[in-house]
Amino acid sequence: MATSKNKRKFSNFELVLKWSIVVIVGIILFLAVVVIYYSTDLPSTAKLEENNRIPDIKIVNLDGQLVANYGEAHGATLQYQDFSPYLIQAVISTEDRRFFEHFGIDLIGLVRAASVNFIAHRVVQGGSTITQQLAKIVFFSPERTMKRKIQEMILALWLEHKYSKQEILSMYLNRVYLGGGNFGVDAAAHNFFSKSASELSLSEAAVLAGLIRAPSRYSPTSNPELSAQRAKQVLANMVDAGYISLEKAVEAEKDLKHEAQVTSSNMYFAEWIAEQVPLYLGVQVSDIIVKTTLDLRMQKAAEEAIKKSLDENGEKLKIGQGALVSLANDGRILAMVGGKNYKASPFNRATQAQRQPGSSFKLFVYLAAFEHGLAPDSTMIDQPVEIEDWAPENYEQKFLGEVTLSEAFALSLNSIAVQLGQTVGIDHVIEMAQRLGIASKLMEIPSAALGTNEVNLLELTQAYAAVANNGYKVKAYGIEEIDNTSGVVLYKHEPQEPEQVLEKNTVYKINSVLSDVVNRGTGQAAKLGDRPAAGKTGTSQDYRDAWFMGFTPQITTGVWVGNDDDTPMKKVTGGKIAAPIWKEYMTVAMEGLPVEEIPTTAGFLRELMPSTPYEPATGTAPTAAPPQYQHKSFWDKLFGR
Hints:
By secondary structure, this protein is α+β, with helices and mostly antiparallel strands. It contains 20 helices and twelve strands. It has helices spanning 2-39, 85-95, 107-120, 130-139, 146-162, 165-175, 185-193, 202-211, 224-240, 246-253, 267-281, 296-317, 362-371, 405-410, 414-424, 426-435, 457-468, 504-520, 574-589, 634-638; strands at 57-61, 66-69, 288-292, 321-328, 333-337, 379-382, 401-404, 479-484, 489-492, 534-539, 545-551, 555-562. α2 (85-95) runs parallel beside α8, α4 packs across α6 and α13 (362-371) crosses α15 (414-424). The longest helix has 38 residues, at 2-39. It is globular. The chain starts with a helix and ends with a helix. The relative contact order is 0.10.
């Protein structure tokens, strides 16, 4: 009987072993098929055999006028033994601790990153190795897809097979982009410290290694304090990895010094462009000319409008910074101002700052409502709304009773926006924002209707441009063409088939209420005389952000003002400061362009409108139940029903 039991146990073991082998073989075959499939169109590896010299970059506009020149920002191509040992240690300990141990893909690192991200419910750590980063730098475009990720891994394995660890690390350090137009660590070392990458001290090596993850954010010329904090973290990583002692790290912290470099006024845009060049070209041996969409006349007008307003109002109204993005309605960036002074702070508030848009986010609430059958002349009751413990108020803390949606939008009534959000569903509001190009993470909470999620100025301007573009999605871009000095075209922007994201009837409805904002609502300070314009003001909670997003049939422009440390301004609303900046710039930008009408449906505004424009601030909330709304047709109005 014992023998029978043993036989059954052995039989069960055989069964488990058999199926385990089947599963393992199946996985191996599946992976083999995946590798073969994605290897069929891998990019050429010939680039790695070419001269490692990084080209000089000359950035111009389409008229050939110079925007910026990075011709002196490139250093020598160094061999592994030429780099400062401190730099190698700093990069390894911060970017890829197991670089000399893994085979190009760090499975342990992937598992660790996945677990950390799962616990944090967001991406905190990445699992890419230095070898994978090199593959991405050399071979790939900015496209982010699963296919690209798999191909990146395949090429990482190929690199590890063909080259030594020292060669891979050298190629990486000679190519990595470190901000300010600096390609490679030697260029950055010369630019920031006036020395070769072979001569870097421990503190200087920590600064450069800290730049790799976010060049603009941690640049010594961008924010000395953030740069120093990041360098201290790199030093701590080196201690943890066993490269240096704690005492040596503490001593190196005392040597962290950063001095801002003198740069031109176009550098916010130029820096944004320079970061994209290696993504489109990979490694090039020739000097290149980048032809951009920037209009220098409009750029100057944008800078002057921001500077003038902040010089006049900054101190008395506690406004520290401003930003502006202007797009042609096909997506061409005509002007970009990322802050008050690039030399003092190169942090680009047009593309990098995530801020609450306040009531300018109501665009998506009303678009969702109009898609669900409402119209500018539909009426609702402006009355107190309470959702659990949240009771949003209007700016003047009073309610107007029955109003049309056109009135509610023009006066930016919070009560109506919240009711609409609950009626059509916040999920539909979020979907609308994403459909028009908002890529930032948006939470489905009732206060989202009042703009409490964070977005950046560029993506919000893109979204408004889709309305100005008659409902066709707009993707902002700044590079038209990249040529080498022999005139060979290396990259050319190819317009994509326009994607219609809004029906024409919905566009006409939203144009109607956006026009009312400028003509009779909170955005009257943005009026362009007899030239039709439309837009929306926005003010976030406690006056931390003020916006004006507006357009004509030819140009869409977004303006933001606020403080980097998120401190409140002195009762600054979008209509008070951002709208006048918008008008100042657009008056110049529209010179020479024909006057064109904005197609709208007839909106029914009350004859008696408030004489003083006002703009609401927003609150926060968790959940809510749908309220009721009233809809009156033309015949109901005609017969007084």
